[in-house]
Design a protein that fits this description.
eight-stranded mixed β-sheet, 5 helices, alpha+beta, globular, 171 residues
Length: 171
């Protein structure tokens, strides 16, 4: 388990599927989580659950100190270079603007830099997701570029922002 100030992250268990669905199936959450159909089913979450044990990708559920399951994070080492990890996060809407995302990202970065000896952590975020971009910048991530028309949602293509954080930049 990984422990932050407001949250801890643990391995998911099958009993988390229902709660993850209820937390993450909101339309505003779906808009930016990479599911281009905009429809999340329990079967979809269950299929993702089966992939959680893949060696190149690790997912952890995020739980508040008061035991609310609020979302999940993932990380994976990139195949094109050593010690570079990609990360992502999804948090339920009713938990936005409470500092949980910041604490989750900082805790995950600390783990990757200190335990996995990461050289760099990178991510990609839809340019319209200002809340997430501000959180990542607050965590120390720097803008690295725009990928034009990379993300498809609700009938239109949107740009994504590539962001990165080097070990020496992490405070």
């Amino acid at each position: 388990m990984l422990y932050g100030e407001k949250v801890y992250m643990r391995e998911p268990v099958r009993e988390d599927i229902e709660e993850l669905y209820d937390t993450c199936a909101d339309e505003d959450v779906l808009k930016y989580n990479g599911l281009s159909t905009g429809v999340m089913t329990k079967e979809y979450i269950n299929s993702q659950f089966r992939h959680l044990t893949k060696p190149n990708k690790k997912e952890l559920v995020i739980v508040t100190n008061s035991s609310d399951l609020i979302g999940y994070v993932y990380y994976k080492e990139n195949s094109y270079t050593r010690d570079v990890y990609s990360i992502g996060i999804t948090i339920g809407k009713k938990f936005w603007n409470k500092g949980y995302g910041f604490d989750s990202i900082r805790t995950l970065c600390s783990y990757l830099f200190n335990s996995k000896k990461a050289h760099k952590i990178e991510l990609e975020v839809v340019c319209q997701n200002k809340r997430a971009i501000n959180c990542y910048r607050k965590c120390g991530f720097k803008d690295e570029g725009i990928r034009r028309s990379k993300y498809y949602y609700d009938g239109e293509y949107l740009d994504t922002l590539v962001m990165g954080l080097l070990r020496e930049e992490f405070i």
